[in-house]
Design brief:
Structural class of chain A: alpha/beta
Number of helices of chain A: 11
Helix content of chain A: 40-55%
Largest sheet of chain A: 7 strands, mixed
CATH topology of the largest domain in chain A: Rossmann fold
Distance between the termini of chain A: 29 Å
Oligomer: homodimer
Number of strands of chain A: 17
Strand content of chain A: 15-25%
CATH class of the largest domain in chain A: Alpha Beta
Shape of chain A: globular
Strand order of the largest sheet of chain A: 6-5-4-7-10-16-17
């Protein structure tokens, strides 16, 4: 189903097989989920992460729930399925792709006949295939915007690991590299989870794309001193007015890019756009445990009793977004009218 | 000599005793330096850090060199001392306080008579005492600028640990807290060395000042959502035009503060001002080993072969500095004329 050796989310016919991204890059361990509760846990503990990837995982979670529902007494079946859908939908709050995928599966569930599990499996595989195709399309559209020799910066991991394959922001970077438009990538390490250090640098290096890792705090300095033309990121939710929720630190890069005249490109499939969210103010920003800030990989750095604040997403207002790239096309300076037209 | 239980740099009459800041906050280990080469090593490996503190350490390093020079044959003594001065002066490149303190000791050395070691010890102790007094003065001047109930953000550690005691940025925060002007401090963790997590949060918590740790990447989001009025930082070098070199990440905070209407206060003693450096462009920005980015506390996160860029300071242009606080007074919107008047 994928065109990359990276298979972060894979259906083996019986179970959902997830590459445990918490162990990367040092170990490639796969977790085989045979019931939906395991999928919920895998999403909330970030075995699988990245907005499109958790959407796909959620969809196959519905398949597992429907299969298990066959063994539940008929009177309790509907309740069982509703509870499973709710648990999957709420496994993480900020990325809309998860809710989108679970809702799409619920629609399929409502209309499916006797071959329920087969129909749901097909629908989940369709979600997967569509995401992969969208990534390639976005890669081509985004790469066309770069001038040859571009230096770019990316944040967190919006790569093959965050999607069905190829990646959103990293899809653009892959396409740009293939087309000879790319000089170098600066990858921010992305505290507290270090997705840039662990995942993005690893993905790009595997593809032979020149990448250097930097601390999040040095990004503005690197923009100023190294001639960064584009900051290219993914998204967890794009609101109806074009506001973008994405990994914490995106907003700081957007502010710095505007100050330096670098351009901000947000790359996200249409499944990330949520027209029912009027603006970024309505987006629930997940806060995770302070220990993710107080510790690094289980080593405590802060003194006992020190408190921390750990919002893991932030909102970049639409007026800081230069270009939104979706598989439906490119939208410059997104606003409500442009978003409505794009999604019509 | 200090009014705090924190004694990061202390002369015990025979040796320079340094609190090993690499082990904080978990262990309070002291390193006793009895020759100047140990002081050079302690500065370059960051046993002692913070621009004023490494200046003081360098000054006592000269005392140790002069004492050892007494045992060197008279014909080689001058060369020995010159080599020691140079090694101390160059132990780290960016903070000017180190060069300033070593040069001041060299002047004392040139004019001292028979009681050379005694004269140098007195001079080094004077540098220490002046720094402590400057911190208290700057604390009062800076705190007076804050409105009651202020939420502030600080970066790295510009505290008692970075100075003779009390601190520059944290001196202002301490004074503001005592005067009831402070609601809360957000301390950025400050990768790659995590001085915010390890040192600043610890220092403030010891004093009962409310502090929450945040990742560097979340600072702009926290400014936007939590009503931060001031970003208060120290400096490693202030150029003649008011440009400020400070810990990597300061520039990003300055850009974000300007975007949000928060104000940037740089707190630094006059010994940090270098009128011989015309602007930030002339400041040598130290780059340290990539392993500081690729690893956290000895644990490697990036895949083998991944490269990193590790500039550990950046330059904030004067036009992003709202206020420079020195012991000589407060300078709003520093520029060349204002700097010259301040230092006259």
């Amino acid at each position: 189903m994928t065109d990359s050796s990276l298979a972060p989310v894979r259906w083996d016919g019986e179970a959902l097989v997830l590459l445990d991204q918490r162990q990367l890059p040092h170990e490639e361990t796969y977790l085989r989920c045979t019931d939906h509760a395991e999928v919920v846990a895998a999403i909330s503990t970030m075995v699988v992460r990245g907005a499109p990837a958790i959407g796909i995982a959620g969809a196959f979670g519905v398949v597992l729930a429907a299969r298990a529902a066959g063994k539940v007494s008929e009177g309790r079946r509907a309740d069982y399925l509703q509870a499973a859908l709710r648990a999957l939908r709420e496994a993480r709050p900020t990325a809309v792709n998860l809710a989108w995928a679970v809702d799409r599966m619920a629609t399929c569930l409502a209309s499916a006949g006797a071959e329920l599990v087969a129909a749901l499996t097909e629908e989940a595989e369709r979600i997967f295939d569509e995401d992969l195709a969208a990534n390639h399309r976005m890669g081509d559209l985004g790469a066309a915007l770069l001038s040859p020799g571009a230096r770019v910066m990316t944040h967190c991991n919006a790569g093959a690991l965050a999607t069905a394959g190829y990646g959103t922001a990293l899809g653009v970077i892959r396409s740009a590299w293939r087309e000879g438009r790319l000089a170098e990538v600066f990858a921010t390490e992305t505290r507290p989870w270090l997705q840039g250090a662990r995942l993005t640098a690893w993905e790009l290096q595997r593809d032979g794309i020149p990448v250097r890792l930097i601390t999040d705090g040095s990004a503005a300095h690197v923009m100023r001193t190294r001639g960064v033309a584009w900051v290219i990121v993914g998204a967890d939710r794009v609101a109806a007015n074009g506001d973008v929720a994405n990994k914490i630190g995106t907003y700081a890069l957007a502010v710095a890019a505007r100050y330096h005249g670098a351009r901000l490109m947000v790359v996200a499939p249409a499944s990330t756009v949520d027209l029912s969210t009027p603006s970024g103010e309505a987006i629930h920003i997940e806060e995770r445990t302070p220990s993710e800030v107080l510790e690094v990989a289980g080593t405590r750095f802060a003194a006992p009793g020190v408190e921390a604040l750990n919002p893991v997403f932030d909102v970049t207002p639409a007026d800081l977004v230069d270009v939104l790239v979706t598989e439906r096309g490119v939208l410059e300076r997104p606003d409500a009218a442009g978003m409505a037209a794009l999604m019509a």
